């Protein structure tokens, strides 16, 4: 059952790099990460790759396989033909450190820009009984393993480095949605999601949803609902007119 | 110069992406979906435009079938019988479609629909053509400024679309009574199918999902709206499906009315 798989791996660093071809033994039931490890063990001891759980739960082994953003540990060899060349490259959207390892600090910076959970002032522990239906929506977003594959795929920053400054990316727009939909969060997040986190850049083309290994419906359940909230606040002429006439602030 | 292993990115003067020249390394047929989408949308647009300006064979007088492309027909230019709401408007010049009151809103509803936006942004504007395939544009600002910021008016088109769907429903009900009284033919089945799917498309709209309940923070305090939201959400997961199905049934309905009213085929009658 074992065969020699054709692997093409990007090797290099921030200054230069190239795709290199290898033949690596593949056995039944293996995933791409197993072959990368075998390559490291038998041919290229200095190959850099980030991984931890090998169970699709830590979000470390994000890379691109045949051009598609994937977790290396969840990409089965059985999905390729035996004579197919399998190209493994680092995530394109982030600066490369070495080989398959990228510097994902952009994501941590964006995470820090979002004000944390803000419960109502003076609410004591135990005073509020949470209903399941009230937290259900936010719970879906809590499945996120922070692999940043959605961030890597999103064309807003993948194809336009200059947008990184003003765009938080799907993972963090979803974080805003998670807090906004939380029944106990008091912060006003709707204005900021558009002006500070760049929701308007998203054109709902759903690539984040397509690559999410947790199957979170990022676009349908987080981004579009946030766009609708922004429309409530900013682009609803009836609300706008009401605010003009009655000199109300906010809504 | 390659940096030695263990160098932190901070020591690297210019943190940059891995140098990978091709715009994508995808090996599957990623171009197929944008191609099919473009063909599908183009076919509909051409058909709908031609038919909307034709002004013939939109009303099958014998069975009272009215095509949705001419509803509501409110002007004196409409053929006798096709005006279900009277003719408050005089003659219309030939360059104005008879359904001038509904068509712009239906177009607006679909143009600003979250699904169609995805479809044409990907396939026509190619931003992006497919996931992880580089887009050809130098700059990209998305929906942050004019004109695309106008996509935010979607909900108003949704409200108007609700009214138009009601009108289409009324048309379909009236079609059960033809010149010889009550009867059912294949045309009725098609009109009805079209209307049912139009309701599915309209109610599965993301703005509908938002206004019926999505905007609430406390579902538990609004059990009725929560239930409605749950149902709309179920339909919403199939919004894309309904978007395409209704393009199909609109063409099918119109084509059938066209063929019957021009006498090319006779309506298949089940009852009377
Ligand atoms: S749906 Fe929006 S956030 Fe998600 S990948 Fe597309 S543009 Fe980016
Ligand atoms: S939302 Fe999905 S794709 Fe994005 S970081 Fe979380 S798990 Fe990864
Ligand atoms: S190694 Fe943890 S997700 Fe792949």
From TrEMBL, chain A:
The keyword Metal-binding applies. Pathway: Carbohydrate metabolism; tricarboxylic acid cycle. Residues 5-92 form the 2Fe-2S ferredoxin-type domain. Its cofactor is [3Fe-4S] cluster; [2Fe-2S] cluster; [4Fe-4S] cluster. InterPro entries: 2Fe-2S_ferredoxin-like_sf (IPR036010), 2Fe-2S_ferredoxin-type (IPR001041), 2Fe2S_fd_BS (IPR006058), 4Fe4S_Fe-S-bd (IPR017896), Beta-grasp_dom_sf (IPR012675), Helical_ferredxn (IPR009051), SDH/FRD_Iron-Sulfur (IPR050573), Succ_DH/fum_Rdtase_Fe-S (IPR004489). Pfam families: Fer2_3, Fer4_8. CDD domains: fer2 (cd00207). PROSITE patterns: 2FE2S_FER_1, 2FE2S_FER_2. Keywords: 2Fe-2S, 4Fe-4S, Iron, Iron-sulfur, Metal-binding, Oxidoreductase. NCBIfam families: dhsB, PRK12386.1. Belongs to the succinate dehydrogenase/fumarate reductase iron-sulfur protein family. This is Succinate dehydrogenase/fumarate reductase iron-sulfur subunit.
From TrEMBL, chain B:
Keywords: Membrane, Transmembrane, Transmembrane helix. The chain crosses the membrane at residues 30-50, 94-116, 156-176, 182-201, 242-266. It comes from the Bacteria. The keyword Transmembrane applies. This is Succinate dehydrogenase / fumarate reductase membrane anchor subunit. It comes from Prauserella alba.
């Amino acid at each position: 059952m074992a065969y020699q798989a054709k692997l093409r791996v990007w090797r290099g660093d921030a200054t230069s790099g190239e795709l290199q071809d290898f033949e690596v033994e593949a056995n039944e039931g293996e995933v791409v990460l197993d072959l990368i490890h075998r390559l490291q063990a038998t041919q290229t001891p200095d190959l850099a790759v980030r991984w931890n759980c090998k169970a699709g739960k830590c979000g470390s082994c994000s890379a691109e396989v045949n051009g598609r953003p994937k977790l290396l540990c969840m990409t089965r060899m059985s999905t390729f033909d035996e004579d197919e060349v399998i190209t493994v490259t680092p995530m394109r959207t982030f600066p490369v450190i070495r080989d398959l390892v990228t510097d994902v600090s952009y994501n941590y910076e964006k995470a820090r820009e979002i004000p944390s959970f803000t419960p109502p002032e003076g609410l004591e522990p135990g005073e509020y009984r949470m209903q399941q239906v009230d937290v259900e929506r936010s719970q879906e977003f809590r499945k996120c393993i922070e692999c940043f594959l959605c961030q890597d795929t999103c064309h807003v920053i993948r194809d336009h480095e200059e947008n990184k400054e003003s765009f938080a990316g799907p993972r963090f727009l979803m974080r805003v949605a998670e807090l906004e939909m939380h029944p106990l969060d008091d912060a006003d997040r709707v204005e900021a999601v558009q002006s500070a986190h760049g929701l308007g850049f998203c054109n709902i083309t759903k690539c984040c949803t397509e690559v999410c290994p947790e199957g979170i419906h990022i676009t349908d359940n987080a981004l579009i609902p946030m766009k609708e909230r922004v429309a409530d606040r900013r682009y609803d002429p009836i609300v706008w007119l009401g605010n003009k006439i009655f000199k109300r602030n906010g809504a | 110069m390659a940096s030695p292993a263990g160098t932190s990115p901070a020591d690297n003067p210019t943190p940059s992406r891995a140098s990978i020249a091709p715009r994508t390394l995808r090996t599957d047929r990623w171009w197929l979906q944008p191609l099919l989408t473009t063909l599908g949308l183009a076919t509909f647009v051409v058909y709908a435009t031609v038919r909307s300006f034709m002004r013939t064979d939109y009303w099958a007088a014998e069975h009272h079938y009215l095509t949705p492309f001419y509803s509501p027909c409110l002007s004196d230019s409409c053929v006798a019988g096709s005006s279900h709401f009277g003719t408050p408007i005089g003659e219309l010049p030939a360059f104005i479609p008879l359904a001038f009151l509904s068509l712009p809103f239906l177009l607006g509803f679909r143009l600003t629909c979250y699904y169609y936006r995805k479809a044409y942004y990907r396939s026509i504007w190619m931003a992006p053509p497919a996931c992880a395939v580089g887009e050809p544009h130098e700059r990209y600002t998305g929906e942050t400024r004019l004109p695309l910021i106008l996509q935010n008016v979607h909900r108003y088109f949704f409200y108007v679309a609700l009214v138009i769907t009601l009108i289409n429903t009324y048309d379909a009900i009236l079609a059960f009574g033809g010149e010889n009284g009550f009867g059912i033919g294949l045309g009725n089945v098609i009109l009805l199918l079209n209307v049912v799917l139009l309701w599915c498309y309209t109610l599965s709209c993301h703005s509908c999902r938002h206004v019926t309940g999505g905007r609430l923070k406390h579902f538990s305090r609004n059990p009725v709206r929560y239930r409605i939201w749950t149902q709309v959400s179920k339909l919403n997961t199939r919004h894309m499906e309904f978007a395409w199905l209704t393009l199909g049934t609109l063409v099918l309905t119109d084509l059938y009315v066209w063929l019957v009213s021009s006498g090319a085929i006779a309506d298949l009658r089940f009852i009377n």
